[in-house]
Every structure is written in structure tokens, then in C-alpha cells.
Amino acid sequence: MTVQEIFDTPAIKKVENEMIGLEENIERHRVDKPNGLEMMHVLIGLRRNLLADMFVMDENYKRLLSDFNETMKQQLIRMRHETIKAAHGVMNADVTGEIQAIGKCFLGYRYSKLHPVQTMRAKKIWAILNGSIDDYVQFYSDGVLMGGYVYDSRKEQESENQMLYLQEESDNWNEGLDMEITKDMYLIYPVHHLVSHTDFSIFDLLWVRDFNMEIQMKSNYATYPEEEEGEDISFI
């Protein structure tokens, strides 16, 4: 089936329309937020499983996945650089305390114009999924990296490869995909995280080429006299 045919199947149309209807009810306060969040998690997971059953990796999808992987890799490298630069700027300004900068990379909030399905339903679903409304997709509140990229003035900084592959050597995080077709791809860990640990469908990812970045700064310091020792409190 083509991508358009997949998204036009009754099962996908039904679950996506339920997601849209639920979001409308949440925004109109017909459904309270906690219950709405739980219901949305269920629907998003169902949608992901339905689409996973209809996805078959081929050379065209492999090419799209390679483009997504490389684009996200380069944007993460840039985000890391900007996060370090922001931290150094604050440190050079002689701000008091221990400095921490956190860089977060999110899939672009705008629906990709490259995606073969350009319906209003698809655009509304992307608005629900991409984190701009709420944390509907579990394990995605920090974006494509769990916890984001953290620069801490007290610690040794992880390298680019540690951020991308969780180790110094390049790796291929292709678990959850066709292992044979993707064996030569050197997929970065965030691809694995999105495909295997969140409820995004791979059909949501293949055409993403833009991202939204956030850099947060933190400074922690205490006002106690330096010579004063803290008291250890134990409940054991």
C-alpha cells in the first residue's frame, strides 16, 4: 500500500478522528485534563501499533530514514555547540553558582511539507504528537534525547559521539527495524529512542527535516556561611 492508502484505511481514520475529537473536548473543558491525557496516551499507542503493522522497510524508506538520521545528527551537533556556547557565556559573565545548561531538540512543530499526506487531519494529528500542546507522547518531554544534552560546570562534558551513540565509537542503533536492510546505516541513538521507546510511528518521522531547539540555563548557589556544615538527616 502507498502511504496515502495506509492513512486512508478505516482503522487509522477512526483512531485519528478519535484523537482529534478528544483534543477538541479537552480544549472545550468537556474532558478533564488528567483523564484526557490518559485517554490520549491510549489512542496514540493504538495508532502507533496499527501503523507499525502496516510498515515494511524497503529501499525507499531506508533512503528517507537515512536522510532523517543525518539531518537530526547534524542538528544535534549544532545544538550541543550552542548549549556549550550559552553556558560559557553565562560563566564568563561571572554569574554566581554552579552553571548548568540543558539543550533540547524537538521534532519540528510545523507539519513537514515533504510528507506525502497533506490533509488537515494529518496536520492536526501532528499538532497533538509534537509536544507543542501537551506531553501526549510518553518519554518525549525532553525531545529526542532523554534528559536533553546537559552541560554541567562541575562535570566532564560528554563528547559528540557519546551524545549521539552513547559511546565513543560510532554505532548502529537499528533495533526495532529490519536488521538486514538497515545493517549499514549507523543510526544514532535518538532514532532508536523515537522508534522503540516513544509512540511516534516511523511514518511520523521519515519526512521530518526541521527541528525546534530549546536551551535552558540554571544557576544553583546557597547563602549559608562557607564554614557552616550541613546536617545529615536520615529516615532509616
Polypeptide structure, described:
It is built from eight helices and three strands; from the N terminus they run H-H-H-H-E-H-E-H-H-H-E. Strands 2-1-3 form a three-stranded antiparallel β-sheet, covered by helices on one side. It is globular, with a radius of gyration of 21 Å. With 236 residues, the chain is mainly alpha-helical. The model has no long low-confidence stretch (mean pLDDT 95).
The number of domains is: 1
Order of adjacent strands in the largest pleated sheet:
2-1-3
Please state the structural category: mainly alpha
Low-confidence stretches: none
Q: Rg, please?
A: 21 Å
Spatial shape: globular
Q: What labels describe this entry?
A:
236 residues; mainly alpha; three-stranded antiparallel β-sheet; 8 helices; globular
What's the arrangement of secondary structure elements?
Blueprint: H1 3-7, H2 10-27, H3 33-54, H4 59-92, E1 98-107, H5 120-129, E2 149-152, H6 160-165, H7 189-197, H8 202-205, E3 211-220
Summarize the structure in short.
This protein is mainly α and 236 residues long.
